[in-house]
Amino acid sequence: MDSWATVPETFRAAAAPLPSPWEEMFGPLRSGRVDDLVVVGQIGQSLDGRVATASGDSHYINGPDGLAHLHRLRALVDAVVVGVGTALADDPQLTVRRVNGPQPARVVIDPAGRLPGRARLLAKDGVRRLVVAATAERSPLPSDVEVVMLPRHENQIPPATIVAALAERGLRRLLIEGGADTVSRFLAAGCLDRLHVTVAPMILGSGRAGLSLPPILKASAAPRMPVRAHTLGDEVLFDCDLSAQRVPIGRASKSR
């Protein structure tokens, strides 16, 4: 869709609606309803809610349209965030390649210092790279990588603590891209404003679930939220509004 070309600049200017069809899809990410921050999670999954096969293969559950949507999200946020498990398993670049747009900062959550300095998301390309850590014991990292030291709680760094630390560094809009455990932890902690779930027309039958949350006893106790559905070629995007359950976190410092 040619109308995308002007979207990243117009999105950040916040002075005019985005061209069709992007306003309905991405307009809600311009500003948060709870505080100054916008945190969006994303999941690409099969019809039966799987993000990988039983062997761990996930390339690619989503087709070209679903992947283009992911890259559009990257182009609109200040930073894209992944857990170290995803960084080790997939060695992602976390760059904008399938659409036009600016490159976001790249952030990996690595409490135990497992990320190697050769990881592709740490490539020196003029973009900020940050490692959120809880220990100084790790492999050497490139000298210009920002290490954000934060305290652990029950062997994990709390999502709200991560969001607050990134906001202090001028990163206001965050995309929690994966993996499934990381997105689930941010959702369970009430740290997501939106959740984008892109469903591909396939059934895997078994494998890793897209979300894993604390159990509930009755279906009637499950949280419900406003949802909009968008067609992406032969895939369907569910845009879930989680602002009613988002915890207040704070405001971002002036972007660098």
Summarize the structure.
This protein has 256 residues and is an alpha/beta fold. 20% of the residues lie in helices and 23% in strands. The strands form two sheets. Strands 6-5-4-3-7-1-8-11-10 form a nine-stranded mixed beta sheet, with helices on both faces. The chain has a two-stranded antiparallel ribbon with strand order 2-9.
Rg calculated over all Cα atoms:
18 Å
Share in β-strands: 15-25%
Provide the low-confidence segments as ranges.
none
Distance between the termini: 31 Å
Shape: globular
Arrangement of strands in the largest sheet: 6-5-4-3-7-1-8-11-10
Q: And the CATH topology? A: Dihydrofolate Reductase, subunit A
The biggest beta sheet reads:
9 strands, mixed
Q: Please provide the count of β strands.
A: 11
User: SS-based structural class?
Assistant: alpha/beta
What is the level-2 CATH architecture name? 3-Layer(aba) Sandwich
Helix count, DSSP H or I runs of 4 or more residues = 6
The figure for the number of domains is: 1
Going by CATH, what is the homologous superfamily? Dihydrofolate Reductase, subunit A
- Mean of pLDDT: 94
Order of helices and strands: HHEEHEHEEEHEHEEEE
Overall description:
By secondary structure, this protein is of the alpha/beta class. Helix content is about 20%, strand content about 25%. It contains six helices and eleven strands. The strands form two sheets. Strands 6-5-4-3-7-1-8-11-10 form a nine-stranded mixed beta sheet, with helices on both faces. It is globular. The mean pLDDT is about 95.
